[in-house]
């Protein structure tokens, strides 16, 4: 004969608590999933962070620093900002300049944009002789303006559909390697380069501070 199992009130209460716990756990997971989905406001940037290289060609974030004695001639460039203002290398002499090449549909460009703006704000707040310039290599001014509003970019952006600015930096910016970020010393010479998205804002801060220290030492 099979043993008879008797269900007591205590056993039934324990079973109900177990089932209720499972329901709560499932509901919590669903809520977390929904919350994460709501926080994902930029599919292209998320795609890049997930490791997808779809629809863009870029570097691997490698950093190159150039000793002062090995730097080439100052880079001469000029253009018009998305606010329809002229801007040239001559306007920036005496300051360390961070030049970032980007376009709106570039996933790693979108991923690094908040870090660029954060470092720019930090350097400005600290009163450092540093400025940033964005160079949009593909978009119309309206598209670049929309991008800047989305990511809160407040430093000037030049449009370069003609490729004239890229040509001026051709020896330092490989074709199609977007994003690329260059740091120019106070004389306008390329002192450092990040080929691809900036992996961490502390890297950019360190590179900038190193070049700033040259002119203040």
Please explain how this structure is put together.
- This protein is an alpha/beta fold.
- The chain folds into two domains: about 1-40; about 60-215, Glutaredoxin (3-Layer(aba) Sandwich).
- Helices cover about 40% and strands about 20% of the residues.
- The protein is built from six helices and eight strands; from the N terminus they run ααββββαβαβαββα.
- The chain has helices spanning about 10-40, 45-50, 105-125, 140-150, 165-170, 200-215; strands at about 60-65, 80, 85-90, 95-100, 130-135, 155-160, 180-185, 190-195.
- Residues about 1-40 and about 50-55 have low confidence and may be disordered.
Order of helices and strands: HHEEEEHEHEHEEH
Shape: globular
The end-to-end span amounts to: 94 Å
Q: What is the total tally of β strands?
A: 8
Structure keywords:
six-stranded mixed beta sheet; 217 residues; alpha/beta; single chain; two-stranded antiparallel sheet; 8 strands; 6 helices; globular
In short:
The protein has 217 residues and is of the alpha/beta class.
List the helices and strands and how they pair.
Layout: H1 9-39, H2 43-49, E1 62-65, E2 78-80, E3 86-88, E4 96-102, H3 107-125, E5 130-136, H4 141-151, E6 157-159, H5 164-168, E7 180-184, E8 190-195, H6 201-216
Helix pairs in contact: 2-3, 3-6
């Amino acid at each position: 004969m099979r043993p008879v199992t008797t269900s007591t009130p205590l056993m039934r209460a324990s079973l109900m608590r177990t089932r209720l716990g499972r329901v709560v756990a499932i509901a919590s997971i669903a809520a977390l999933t929904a919350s994460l989905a709501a926080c994902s406001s930029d599919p292209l940037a998320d795609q890049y962070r997930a490791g997808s290289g779809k629809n863009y060609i870029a570097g691997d974030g490698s950093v190159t620093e150039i000793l002062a004695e090995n730097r080439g001639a100052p880079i001469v460039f000029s253009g018009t900002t998305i606010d329809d203002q002229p801007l040239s290398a001559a306007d920036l002499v005496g300051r360390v300049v961070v030049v970032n090449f980007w376009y709106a549909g570039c996933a790693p460009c979108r991923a690094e944009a908040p870090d660029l703006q954060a470092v720019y704000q930090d350097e400005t707040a600290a009163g450092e002789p540093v400025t940033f310039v964005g160079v949009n290599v593909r978009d119309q001014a309206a598209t670049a303006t929309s991008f800047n509003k989305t990511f809160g970019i407040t430093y000037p952006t030049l449009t370069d559909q003609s490729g004239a600015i890229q040509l001026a930096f051709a020896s330092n910016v490989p074709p199609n390697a977007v994003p690329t970020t260059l740091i120019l010393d106070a004389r306008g010479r390329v002192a450092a380069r990040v080929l691809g998205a900036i992996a961490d804002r502390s890297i950019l801060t360190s590179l900038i501070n190193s070049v700033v220290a040259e002119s203040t030492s």
